[in-house]
Amino acid sequence: MNSVRGLLAASVISIQNSCFIYPACQKCFPRLVLDSRRFNCLKCGCTGEAKDASYRYRLSLKIADKDDLFDITVFGNCLDPFFGVTAENLQRCIQDFNQLSGETNTDASPGVLVQAVETCFIGKRFIFGV
Question: Which residues are in the Replication factor A C-terminal domain (predicted)?
Answer without folding.
Answer: 9-95
